[in-house]
Amino acid sequence: MESKNIYSESFSNRERHFFIDMKRTAKGNLYLKITRSDQSVDGSYNRSSIIIFEEDFECFITSLSSVFHHTMFS
To answer: How far apart are the first and last CA of the chain?
Structure first.
């Protein structure tokens, strides 16, 4: 998937790194890519990602907000 990076944020602790990237496909559609990169004992990195497409943003944000609301403010 050829894409253009629109905006990125990242944060990390000792061995975990998180990248949150808003990207645009070659056809102009937005998507969110969330990547977790874990450092292994041997120094290599294992990466896993999820991709949320633009048509799912509203549901994703609503669901994520609901999870935080119910766990942090209950």
So the answer is: 40
- pLDDT tens-digit profile of 18-43? 999 999 999 999 999 999 999 888 88
Q: What DSSP assignment string belongs to 32-60?
A: EEEEEEEE-TTS-EEEEEEEEEGGGHHHH
CATH number belonging to domain 3-72: 3.10.450.700
Q: Could you tell me which of 35, 34, 30 has the C-alpha nearest to residue 54?
A: 30
Q: Which of 32, 28, 26, 37 is nearest to 58 (CA)?
A: 32
Strand partners, 53: 31
Q: Per-domain residue ranges for the chain?
A: 3-72
Q: Please tell me whether residue 14 adopts helix, strand or coil conformation.
A: coil
